[in-house]
Structure formats: C-alpha cells, structure tokens
Specification:
The structure is a homodimer of 436-residue chains. With 436 residues, the first copy, chain A, is of the alpha/beta class. Chain A has three domains: 156 residues, NAD(P)-binding Rossmann-like Domain (Rossmann fold, 3-Layer(aba) Sandwich); 162 residues, Dihydrodipicolinate Reductase, domain 2 (2-Layer Sandwich), CATH 3.30.360; 83 residues, Alpha-Beta Plaits. The first copy, chain A, has 13 helices and 18 strands. In chain A, the strands form two sheets. In chain A, strands 7, 8, 9, 10, 11, 12, 13, 14, 15, 16, 17 and 18 form a twelve-stranded mixed β-sheet that branches. The first copy, chain A, has a six-stranded parallel β-sheet with strand order 3-2-1-4-5-6, with helices on both faces. Chain A starts with a strand and ends with a strand. The relative contact order of chain A is 0.13. The interface between A and B is large, with 66 and 66 residues.
C-alpha cells in the first residue's frame, strides 16, 4: 500500500522534505511505503535543487487537497491564509495533515482539530516547535504521564542568535539585528521574532500538550528583546547570569489547575542547563512529578532539521495507517489518542500580576547618601524582599544601582516600582527583567 | 475498557510505577483506563510506602503472567532469569510487555521479539536506557527518518557520578567508588557499571534502533573506568577536556553499512554539549542527515524518572489498544511498526582496530634530550600524526610526557605504541585514552 503525499509549498523546508522522501534508503523502512505525488509551487519554471518529475509540480494548491491519490497533505506555506482554508479543505476530503505552521495552529487550532476529529484524520505538527528536536510527541505522549509543573523553552532561534551575539561581542541590539538580517538569521520584518510573537505561538502549543487543555493565544504574556541593552547583558554577566528569551508555561498550583504563560527576556544563572544553549539552537526543559527535569535540545530551524520533523510526522501517520484498518473506514472513532487531539476545554490562565518570580532592575539616581536605603524601604513596604542591591558605577553623574529581588509577586513589585519612580532622587529605571 | 496491569517486582521502580498508576489525576488521560491488577513481591508482609490492596500482592510471579485480567506485564525484576522465562510466558499468553531490563533485551532480544511478533504483542523498553529521558521512542520513530551517523551517550549514571566527583574533588577512583557505594550510587559489586557492561547493554539497544538491525551484544568493544587516574583527569583539564565514559555507536561509511560499537572513557572537549552533563545525569546525542545534532538529557536513574518511562510505555500500549480493534484479535498482523520490532538481520560490526579516532597517551621516560623526537618519529613511521606533545613535568625522576594525536587508525596507533614501549628511554605508559 503506497501512501501518497502532497506538499503545499516547496521552499527551503519543502525542498528538504522532498529530498528525504526521494532518498528512503538508510532511513526508516516505512518511508519505502510513501510516494511524493504532488508539490504545490508558485512558479513551474523556477530552477530547483531537488529532482522532481515535472508532472509532480502544480501551481494549483486546490488540486493537491482534492487529489484522491494524496492521503497526507503537508502544509509548509506558513502564515494564516490560505493555509487555514487549504488545511480545512484537505481535512474535509479525509486527508491527514502534517504542518510546520505554528501560527495557524496557535490561532485556529480549535477549528482545525474539531474538523479533524470529525473527519477521523490526524493533524500532526512536530515541526512547528523546536525544528528538528523531537518535542511535540515526547511531550504529548511520554512525558505527560507525569504531572507537568513547568515547560521552559528557548524556542526562537533568531532572538537566541541575537542575544548570543550581543553577549559574546558586547554589541547592542540594533547592530546585531542588522548583521543577523544580512546573514538570513532574521527576516526583513523581524517583528514576529524579536517581539516574542513566534515564541508565544510555540509556547501556546507546548502548554496545550503539557497541560491538556486548549490555550487562548492572547493569554500568553509577551515581551520581546528590543529593550535588552548591552549594559544589562554586561551587568548580568557580572552577577553570574546570561540573558535569554524564555517562553515559560507553568502550573504553579496543581490543584488550582490554572496556567501562567509568558515570553520575556530572562536572566538565567550561568550554571543552568539552558544558559549554554547558544546561537540558533533551541532547547526545551520539561519539569514534572515524579520525573524531575528533562532537556531536549538541537537545531531549532533550518531546512534539514525542520524537514526531519515533518517526515517524522509522515512516518507516524503511515505507521497508523499500516496497522489500523478501521481508521481507513473513516469512522472517526478510532483515532489513536496519542496522536489525535481530544482537548475539549480551554485552560484557565493567570494574569501576569499573580506571577511569583525574581526581578532584576537597574536604576539611575542622584549620587546621594540614603538612596539605597530609600529603595530598600520602598520595596520592603510592598513585601518585595531583596537579594542584593549593588551600586554598579556612575553614569552621566548618576549612580547606577542594580537590584535583584527574591521571589516576589509581580503586582507587589510593580506597586513598589511606581512609588520608587516618584522618588526625587530616582532619575530613570532603564531596565526591568525577570530572573529564572 | 479497563486495561489490567501486572507488575513483576515492587522495588524502587515498581513502587514508583504503582504510585503513578494509582494517582492518574493530572496525568495523561489514558491512565484513567488502566487498573493495577497484580504486583509480584518477595514478601507479603514487608511494610510498603505505596497503598496497594492486599489482594493485589502475590509472591507467585507465574500467577501474574497467566492472569486473564492482566493485559500488560511490566517486568522490573532485572537480570536474565527468571525475567526471560516470565517474559516469554507472558508473551505466549498474549500479553504485552513493558520492561526496564536492558540486560535481558541486550542478551535475549531476538528470542523475545520473535516470540512477540508471532503472538502479535508489543515489547516496549523506554525505561531500559536513559531513565526518564524519552530516547527509545524518539530514536525508533522520529529521528530515524534521518540517516543516522552516530549516537553518543553518557548512559551510565554511576560512572558519570564517579568521574564527576573525581574531577571536582581531584580524588582517585577507589576513594570515590567507596563514597558512591555508601551513598547508594554504586552497588556493592560495581562491576556492571564501572567496567562498562551496563553502558554496553544500552548502546547495543540504541544502535539497533538507530541503525535498524539486531546487535550481537558481544560485538560492543568495552573498556571501563577503573584505570582512569586523578592525574589524567588533571592533565585533561589543562588540555581543555573532561573525561567521560561514552558509549558510541557509529556508521562510519553509509554505503558499507557496518557499525562501530564501543564503550570507553573518553576525553571530551569542555565546549562539547556532553562535557557539562554531570553527576548521575544521562545524555544521548544523536547525529543524522539532514537533521544535524540533537541532544536529549535528564535523570538517568531513580525511582521517579524510571517509573515515568515505564508508564509512558504503558500509555503507548493503551493508546494502540484503544484505537486498533484488529490488534485484540491477535492476528499478529497489525502491530504498529513504530512500536513493534521488525529487525530480521544482525548488523555487521567493525573491529576496534579499524576505528579512526584521536588518542591521548601519557608516557614516563628517562629525562633525556631526544625522547620527544623519538616518540614523534615512531608515531610518524606508523602514520600517526600528532596534534601536541607536551612534557607535563617530572615524576619519580622520570619525564612525564602527554601526547594527543590527530584522527588516526587504532591499529596504526597500537603498532606505534608497541614499538615505543620497546624504546629504552620509555619506562611506562600509564594511560591511553581516546579523544572525542
């Protein structure tokens, strides 16, 4: 039984996927049962590095989602439309979906999975998070026998590259961003990466797998890295930290069953396993009971890594089709619950105010005796206890003071901060960052 | 449909497994379909931390593998017998097997999987390698769409703990081993751990998954860590390395399809991701085309971590039983190839002589001019090119010289070494280690 594959999109990842499918020797034996039937492209004439028969190519994407010889549609278009419409049409036609598109799943996951469950087909998305790192299936299948307490990810390669470069070369954000754009590591419009939206899409997906409920994407609190300065990176280094853009999904209280979802630049202790994940590498740390901590790391992007994840999904569908004859009747009743999605409720999420975390804050103040005392008093009055207060130096005649707190409630910290900003001696608060 | 579980063994891992099964709330929903029917123990009277109904316990292990209410037998006895016999009997009775027993699989894998395929049941072993790290299923299912070139593991927690302690405290092997035994990190008879046998069992299993063929366990070349000295660790540090017991499975030439399988202490560059995996932690690095490198790391042992892996296997069997009605007819034809084992051939393995690697060697020689020249000449005559030759110091009136080679054939290195040992000036060669 040969399983027909239709590719929507033949860019870098699509080409990587085709290359694996066309060279099954030495790979998983189930790839021998797969045939690449159709690939949807913008132009038939463009020279391509992968040798596909000309009759395999089409510019009509609808032709692919309606082709009776295609059993698995691989959506590699990215973005919301026409991806959503094509996925829904393919599902309506009884085709399984493999996608690398975190945006469409984070935004339209409910609609897509409801349709898929009704039609009795799978929608798999290993490539949507963490590139070539196997994380979706381990989280959904193996690790979730634990009571997951927290998932922490470095899941945006562009920002990790930028922060790594800033750290290693003591360079500022704008310079490194420009270099990254030149090298192709950042897009011309870098918004989705540097403002944290891409990481927020991905942590929404990971949270829904780890904690077993749908996530409203807008519930993910999100701060990007535009305001991270070379100065903060340098102070962080002196204090024993590196700065990483972390995406965190947490269930602070198991009984309450409400989630804290957030993306923000974070001071990570240099001894922490995530601290050494540099450049375009990604890593996902999963914490659970009774497991403890497991970390999965690897290339978070790139044609080969992402294609590896796409094809692993194809193999999973083929494995099920191979063994499960009932599925092919499309009764819709026998989807393997380890591969299907059966979430029926939305998870409750907690506002950022209720977060309990450590903070790092940098203040510029008049260089007067008593300022540190005033800061300490203000924080203390709002139940913010401090781990350290250090006058780092002088800048433009102002004393530069760095404060690191113990674990405190974000609401308390913000109240203290508002009061501190009203103090006459305080000239500026150039940065506030959370600490892992 | 409730699925009955029978546990063979209720030691640390068995107790951890029972604790997960008895507290399904907040874990994978499929655990709601699982009932712990029987647990086989040595003594019914022993006080236990987990609350099992008394009629659940039995001292008769045969009763469990023959119980019609048990669909999945979880074997946590360890060792070769009676584990092998009980597993085979359970299979003959149509029960699926979940095991944490690397020794029985490494040794009797062919017999067990042949019987399982005939009976149409699964034998899953996520807990056999890497404790709580999801590695078996990712390697078998997702990563193997790549052409895997190499798997490198730190997969024995005891030896990693010992080497870490030796490194951090500049202590020698015997002292640290004794401490580790006191702390329960090493067994009274530490042979299987410190001589590399446990790591060899595990790399045989990983290699069979990564490269798709059965492995003859005796083909794994094996050196333990008894001869690693505090002196070598200290020299390694100076040269920019740490010493780790690595288990490596490699296919040096894709077309030749022959494997190099080995376990030995290895100098790992401090910048390498495996260098920071310390204490009882495990890590497995998988390299493939087009993926690149992925690393999976976490707790390699302990009740909770290992129980997490055991229960993840249970959930996988339940998922299949849930969706695949044909399986329950035991036709033996519809095992999901992603969970079953379909290897029919033994992989060819290469002798250690053909290995191409870097070496580190330490020599004690008379403190005479010309010795370094003689060493260099001898190595050169055997096509062993050197990266560095450093006289580290003097010891007992002898010059202590450390040599690091480029990548060379092991056979050439050994020939050169035999000649060097015949040189009058050379008094001793206290250590020879390979370099990653």
């Amino acid at each position: 039984m040969a399983i027909g594959i239709g590719l929507l999109g033949l860019g870098t990842v699509g080409t990587g996927t085709a290359e694996i499918l066309l060279t099954p020797h030495g790979r998983h034996p189930l790839l021998g049962e797969v045939v690449l039937k159709k690939a949807g492209v913008r132009s038939l004439d463009k020279p391509r590095s992968v040798g596909l028969p000309q009759d395999c190519l089409t510019t009509d994407l609808n032709e692919i989602v309606n082709d009776p010889d295609v059993q698995i549609v691989v959506e590699l278009l990215g973005g919301l439309e026409p991806a959503r419409t094509l996925i829904l049409e393919a599902i309506a036609n009884g085709k399984h979906i493999v996608t690398a598109n975190k945006a469409v799943i984070a935004k339209f996951g409910e609609e897509i999975y409801t349709a898929a469950n009704k039609a009795g087909v799978y929608v798999l998305l290993e490539a949507a998070v963490g590139g070539g790192i196997p994380v979706i299936k381990p989280l959904k299948q193996s690790l979730s026998v634990n009571r997951i307490t927290r998932v922490i990810g470095i899941i945006n390669g562009t920002t990790n590259y930028i922060l790594t470069q800033m750290t290693q070369n003591n360079a500022d954000f704008d310079t490194v961003l420009k270099d990254a754009q030149g090298l192709g590591y950042a897009e011309a419009d870098p918004t989705a990466d540097v403002d944290g939206g891409d990481a927020a899409d991905k942590i929404a997906i990971l949270a829904s797998l780890a904690f077993g409920g749908r996530i409203n994407r807008d519930d993910v609190y999100c701060e990007g890295i535009r305001d991270v300065s070379a100065a903060d990176i340098s102070f962080a280094t002196k204090l024993g930290f590196v700065i990483k853009l972390l995406a965190i999904a947490e269930r602070p209280d198991f009984e309450a069953d409400a989630l804290q979802l957030r993306v923000h630049p974070t001071l990570v202790p240099t001894s922490h396993p995530l601290a050494t994940v540099n450049g375009v590498f990604n890593a996902i740390l999963v914490e659970g009971e009774p497991l403890g901590q497991v970390m999965l790391s690897g290339p978070g992007a790139g044609a080969g890594a992402t294609a590896s994840a796409v094809v692993s999904d194809i193999v999973h569908v083929v494995g099920v089709l191979h063994s499960d004859h009932t599925l092919q009747d499309q009764t819709g009743k026998s989807l393997n619950p380890l591969l299907g999605c059966s979430h029926e409720h939305y998870s409750t999420t907690l506002p950022i105010d209720t977060l309990k975390t450590r903070f790092y804050a940098r203040f510029l103040s008049q260089d007067l005796p008593g300022v540190i005392g005033d800061l300490g008093t203000c924080f203390g009055q709002h139940q913010v206890s401090l781990e350290s207060v250090v006058q780092i130096g002088l800048k433009d005649d102002c004393a530069e003071i760095v404060v690191v707190t113990h674990d405190v409630y974000e609401a308390n910290f913000r109240e203290a901060l508002a009061e501190i900003q009203g103090l006459e001696a305080i000239k500026d608060v150039p940065s506030i960052l959370r600490v892992l």
